[in-house]
User: What shape does this take?
Amino acid sequence: MPKKHYDCLKCVAYCCSYTHIPTTKTDIKRLAKHFDVSVDKAQRKFTKYGDKDSPRVLRHTDDEHFSSSCMFLDKDTRNCTVYAARPAICRDFPTQSRCGYYEFLKFEREVQDDPEWVATTN
Assistant: This one.
């Protein structure tokens, strides 16, 4: 992959606000190990039914910037609280050298002349 032109640690976690964050059986096993709970308990506690293509998705909690976001997003720091155990889709995203959300955030902060601005997409 080419050099990344974004820094996830400077973003407000737009991708964590996706309503449908799929998890695999391997992801659930990884979360179970991280929290030292059974796979069944991890599935019940951290995921919910998604759809036919992605039967299990991560649960969400309320978010001040978006209607909801991943339950593992620290709402103050905007960082992942299970980074080492995060699902594969989170490990792989974004797959390009640029992230559209990060570009959007940088643009909005420049236009608003406010380095803390959080542009919402709701």
